[in-house]
């Protein structure tokens, strides 16, 4: 890679790194693993920068993050059963911190592909078509995965509007 291409890559990482780290964290739910996911995605992008840089590289990196997170979750699931979180018995969280913690626990309990759909659709505000492109699936799959995930989140978070909770926590 030439010096100009390296500078272009560094500028891209400086501009979008925080947003991409957030996607990685929300996809896996663990800070250290999120940093590792992002590092893996950036490494792959760097190796393919001459091909990726002319298109918008951010969807490429998101796709690498999501696919890597799903692969790792599958490997872990084969090795052992991942415990499912049960929500606390209190009727409603008292603070935004409690709400964030409850939402993150509910997200962690989702299967990786459903979690990825929720992160991309609601946190990143991507459309169904964009989400389908990143995940390499059909729009119908995105819709069904989002529906199943939202049903699970509604069960975990109560009957309140999950979309509102997600947007309030995200804000």
Automatic annotation (TrEMBL):
Transmembrane segments: none annotated. InterPro entries: RNA_pol_sigma-70-like (IPR039425), RNA_pol_sigma-70_dom (IPR014284), RNA_pol_sigma-E_actinobac (IPR014325), RNA_pol_sigma70_r2 (IPR007627), RNA_pol_sigma70_r4_t2 (IPR013249), RNA_pol_sigma_r2 (IPR013325), RNA_pol_sigma_r3/r4-like (IPR013324), WH-like_DNA-bd_sf (IPR036388). CDD domains: Sigma70_r4 (cd06171). Pfam families: Sigma70_r2 (PF04542), Sigma70_r4_2 (PF08281). Residues 101-153 form the RNA polymerase sigma factor 70 region 4 type domain. It comes from Nonomuraea guangzhouensis. Gene3D superfamilies: 1.10.1740.10, Winged helix-like DNA-binding domain superfamily/Winged helix DNA-binding domain. Keywords: DNA-binding, Sigma factor, Transcription, Transcription regulation. The keyword 4Fe-4S does not apply. Belongs to the sigma-70 factor family. ECF subfamily. This is SigE family RNA polymerase sigma factor. Residues 18-77 form the RNA polymerase sigma-70 region domain.
């Amino acid at each position: 890679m030439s010096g100009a291409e390296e500078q272009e890559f560094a500028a891209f990482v400086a501009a979008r790194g925080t947003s991409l780290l957030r996607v990685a964290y929300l996809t896996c739910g663990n800070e250290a693993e999120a940093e590792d996911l992002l590092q893996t995605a950036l490494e792959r992008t760097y190796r393919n920068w001459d091909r990726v840089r002319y298109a918008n590289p951010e969807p490429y990196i998101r796709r690498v993050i999501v696919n890597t997170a799903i692969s790792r979750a599958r490997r872990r699931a084969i090795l052992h059963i991942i415990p499912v979180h049960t929500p606390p018995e209190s009727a409603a969280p008292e603070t935004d911190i409690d709400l964030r913690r409850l939402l993150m626990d509910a997200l962690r309990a989702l299967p990786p592909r459903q979690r990825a759909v929720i992160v991309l659709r609601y946190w990143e505000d991507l459309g169904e078509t964009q989400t389908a492109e990143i995940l390499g699936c059909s729009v119908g799959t995105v819709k069904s995965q989002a529906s199943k995930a939202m049903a699970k989140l509604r069960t975990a978070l109560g009957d309140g509007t999950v979309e509102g909770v997600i947007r309030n926590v995200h804000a």
